[in-house]
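G., before I forget:
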Amino acid sequence: MPQQLEVINAGVSYGAQPVVRGVSFELARGEIGCLLGPSGCGKTSLLRAIAGFEPLSEGEILLHGRSVSRPGSTLAPEKRRVGMVFQDFALYPHLTVAQNVAFGLRGLKGRLQKKRVDELLELVDLGGRQKDYPHQLSGGQQQRVALIRAMAPRPDILLLDEPFSGLDIELREQVARQVRTILKQEEATALLVTHDQLEAFALADVIGVLGEGRLRQWDSGYDLYHKPGDRFVADFIGQGVMVPGRVTADGCVETAIGCLRGLFMQEVEAGQRVELLLRPDDVIHDDSSSFRLEVVDKVFQGAEYLYTLRLHDGSDILCLVQSHHDHAIGEAIGVRLQVEHPVTFPLQSSGNN
Amino acid sequence: MTGVPGSSRFSPWSGGVLLVALLLSIPVLVVVGYLFEPAGEVWRHLAQTVLKDYVLNSLLLMVGVAIGVLALGVSTAWLTSMCQFPGRALFEWALLLPMAIPAYIIAYTYTGLFDFAGPVQSALRSWTGWGYGDYWFPEIRSLGGAALMLSLVLYPYVYLLARAAFLSQSICVLDVSRTLGNGPWRSFFSVALPMARPAIVAGLSLALMETLADYGTVQYFGVSTFTTGIFRTWFGLNNAAAAAQLAAILLLAVFALIVLERGSRRQARYHHTTQRHQALNRFQLDWRQAGLALLICCGALLFGFLLPAGQLLWWALTTAEENLDARFLSLIGHSLLLAGGASLLALLLALFLGYGKRLHGSWPVTLAVRAAGMGYAIPGTVIAVGVMIPFAAFDNALDQWVRDHLGWSSGLLLSGTLVALLFAYLVRFLAVSLQTVEAGLGKIRPTLDEVARSLGTGSGEIVRRVHIPLLKGSLMTALLLVFVDVLKELPATLILRPFNYNTLAVRAYELASDERLADASYASLAIVMVGILPVILLSRSITRSRHAATA
Amino acid sequence: MSIQRLFVHLVLMIALAFPLAASAEGEVNLYSARKENLIKPLLDRFTEETGITVNLVTGKADALLQRLQSEGRNTPADLLITTDAGRLHRAKKAGVTQAVESAVLNKQVPSSFRDPEGHWFGLSLRARPILYVKERVDPATLSSYEALADPKWKGRICIRSSNNIYNQSLVASLIAADSLQATEKWAEGLVKNFARPPKGGDRDQIKAAAAGICDIAIANTYYLAGMLTSKDAAQREAAGKLAVYWPNQSGRGAHVNVSGASLTRAAKNRDNAIKLLEFLVGDEAQSWYAETNGEYPVRSDVPASELLGSWGSFKMDTLNLARLGELNPEAVRLMDRAGWK
């Protein structure tokens, strides 16, 4: 049984300028994947290449075991059985909601078509809005219509290009979870593109982080956070600081906050200078601790305060504390470390590679 | 086609676009070609005597028309789209009516009405007992009068485009302006007007190009402009080369105008940042404001349409000697046929070129499409000659070849047929439909195509199921604008038409130029009446497209 | 979809309705600068009498000439009719006409109103006299075109723009009669006497004079005739205030021009075309010009209409009209320099 989507060593170029290079990953049937990365990382280009709107400059794309893109050969989008949801929703202003949803339902006629449309509208809580025009819907409703329109013909894969960026921020996570439920109910295979990691975590089973045109890591959200494969991923996913240290002979990392045993993502030698990723939740506030650091900044986040603490060597670390522990800036508070597998990277003069 | 639109490689389509554009540029090229022919010492004579007048008068006329069409067009567009006052729905379409009146005909009627010997001044004199020189009355047959006449019939271009722009503006941006402490008037000048600027400039450039090409009005009013200069040099001085060179200079001016217009569009992108439009909440005017609004709209309608049409009707009923016989009916038939044929062809070509540019927008294609629209500002006679010369040359060359190789004569295949005439119409009016179609295509976001393709829809089906319904308003507009323009067109029709083939415009011209204005009223009135129907349809299609265009 | 079906129907209808074929054998094809209503009735009469169909395109003389030149030997046109001799002369110079040897034409058309080599023949005469307001001008104070430059007429003369061919011909005739310098000086004087900048057509000058803007109008007689016979009472009243004065009667005579016709060099229906020419100088056609359009017959033996007769007989400038065509560009430049708008 072939995978639903296989991307093998794929590259996309605009003219001579490569924007995506050597990307490989797979999606199984019913799996929801996500391409996550900062703007300009090439994620949308890759998605458009999978849809058939951009040609490949290298590698290959297979849908359901069928080769659809190779350099010099691009199967037209309309022949791929992909569904796509665009950032601007791209609903047809001249068609009603029902007509929009039925747009791709070529094989289904009459009653069957109506049944499928009604069923999908019901699925997204828009039953009864069949005869409305898109401009009569709210942004979130338009988004859902765009989604079911793409899903209606039961495509082999559903592609979503920043589908939530047109929505209000407070709505995004909630809508993303709804969409996940819908996708799972329809057993759809989907690939999402976004720059928002919370969206990615809420929706996807598996996430690929793209940076500067390369796929950095293809993993679950948990592993991306806790076991980032490189500095780029570590920086991009979650909060945290890099604390400089030195590897001792017994494999411990000597830092300003003590010697920590960690998970080495790359081979290191004794005596080598490294950096250690310290997430805010690795630092526990403990009034009884004798290890006290000065608060230089604090941000209220509802349930928690995010404190910035100054180390003795002048560098800062972050600490997440329940919000009833309200300390003033300038105050010194006791902390201790609770690090299971601190991630370390060899120290580099610059950059993330 | 491969699955990738926008690839800049050469395609049959862009080849076709280049070919069509080249064909349509032939008349312009023929004119420009004369630049290299020596025109003798005529130029020194022109420079010493009349050239300064031509340039100055043309410039003044353009300034006058610009002020006139902007004042009339923008104010009426704003009032009918954003304000609520009695009669608004009526004015919405009625304000377009002056479009149906050819500029030379409004000039005749106004002269008839307001000239020294006309009824208005005569009545004034008989009331007051004044004689000539005892009182001042604005002279209608002057530069100012010509600017007024042209403004009265050309303002609908600005009205049409400005209104569409105002209607598509999100009311939110106006509300934002209000919350920032700007009153409705300030909001209009600081937000709505700048946002509608590209549309207004587009309408203005159409009006100015028509102004440059106008011959009938300025000639009748005795205003020497560049265009009358071209004819005087050609006919009077019998110097075709110098006349063509003047025309070539006119072309350069037009080109500058086009570049200016494009430039003003490029500098700022006026897209709406939000896709949410609220239903228009028109400003409710109080009675004084409503009175003023009524005055403005009534004024435009009265002076641009009712007065001239009424004068024509009066003439037709009282003094005209014209028989409404089969011959007159055939004039209507010919006019309808030519206008219908030309507007359909222009629409198809505009679609072809517009799509070519959308799909294969390389610079040669873009340039070619621009060149194909150059003819709009060229006087019809110049275009006609630019069509006549190459067509006849082609026919004669073909005839020579047939005689040499086959031993018989093919004669004139294209010259003197409706093919040549339709071609001239296309050269002259393609700009109108092209502009409209391009604007319509521009509003169809590329994602609308892409979503259709990802849903398994092929190119042809996308055009049928997505583009045609979305473009319907623009296509209608393009069709009707060219229809009305061809209906009014005179000079090219006069020169290129086949034997025994007269139109309403030709008939009206022949009688009017024989100084039988009253007798010309039947044909003039028929032009106006045939032109009104499309104008009303046009307005309706625009109002309707508003409902579908916002999403 | 109804809009698409409508489209298809329109395309089909229009495609079927377009006549593309040229005329049939033996029919006479005519390019005419005379307006349709001033030639078509005569053509219809000709067809009635002879059974020969005549096909007509009207237009401006220069455009028709350009069309003739471009079409070259394949032109369908057999005849070219213009409303002034200058244009016929231009056509001859351009090599698109041919000589006609016809005893009828040579007998009926006086020699000053036809080309010495037979390339063109005058069909009717259009005279351009001085019209004066009877109430305000004593005809004894009038004499010649030349005398109109006298300062005593300051602000009293109405005449149309120099764009007009009738004025160009008139000035050309003055150049022919005297010198370029003298005529230019005359034109400068005349421009100083204008009551207003030139505007409108000949009828407008007559109306202006009647309304009191000026005392003298220069216009072709048939415009005055047209106004006098108009259905519009105001026009009749205005025209009635003016009278015709024939200038230069003691000298070369009043300025006249012709409307005339040429046989094209490529004419394919030569014989029938000449028949048409002969018909146009026949009795019926000649009196039609006078009765219908207030033009003078080119033949002296055909009486002018009653109205034309009421203005008296007059001496015509006998200058061969080909000369007017030659001098036309010179005349235009002269008027440019004199500031005659």
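The longest helix of chain C spans residues 322-338. Residues 122 and 260 of chain C are 4 Å apart (CA to CA).

More on Monday.
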